[in-house]
Amino acid sequence: ADAPFDSNLADDLPGELLRIEGTVFGCDCETPLAGAIVDVWQADEGGGYDNEGFVLRGRIETDANGRYSFLTIKPGWYLNGAQYRPAHIHYKVSHEQGNALTTQLYFEGDPYIPIDPFVKDSLVIPLTPGQAKGRDALLGTFDIVLA
After folding, report:
1. In whole angstroms, how large is the CA radius of gyration of the chain?
2. CA 136 to CA 71: how far, in whole Å?
3. Whose CA, among 3, 31, 117, 119, lies 20 to 30 Å from 89?
4. What pLDDT was estimated at residue 134?
């Protein structure tokens, strides 16, 4: 609860810089939702979560066009029982005009996607090389529809 509003989760942490952006849409899949809250959290590059504070955790409010963007690092893998989970970012997205959605974002080409029971094709995005904050970074787009 009470994660800070912060679109820069990277905070000079070790790891591959990653910028994710997207649009939150209403249930018609066309109307952008201004003021939606995109709450994200993830593991660090070694697969560890900060369960005491807000490292790699933040909320972003969508702009007037329903757009959001945040800077982070690519999360690492961690064991879930006997197998690794693919790299992923957790999302909880809410807006007064739709039902809240809790989901996860995955990255194309991750070797653990085929064996993970939680992955759906619609949650996997490609990453392309680019720049963020004047540094080399991976860039991805993840659009969200609230029902």
Report:
1. 15
2. 12
3. 31
4. 92
List the chain residues with pLDDT less than 50. Answer: none
User: Looking at this protein, which amino acid is placed at residue 66?
Assistant: G
Nearest to 40 by CA among 23, 59, 54, 27: 59
- What's the CA gap between 45 and 57, in Å, rounded? 14
Contact 5, 40 (CB under 8 A): no
* pLDDT value, residue 98: 87
pLDDT score, position 1: 84
| Three-class SS of the chain | CCCCECCECCCCCCCCEEEEEEEEECCCCCCECCCCEEEEEECCCCCCCCCCCCCCEEEEECCCCCEEEEEEECCCCEEECCEEECCEEEEEEEECCEEEEEEEEEECCCCCHHHCCCCCHHHEECCEEEEECCEEEEEEECCEECC
Q: How far apart are CA 124 and CA 112, in angstroms?
A: 12
- Amino acid at the residue 120: K
Task: Give the C-alpha separation, 40 to 58, whole Å.
Answer: 6
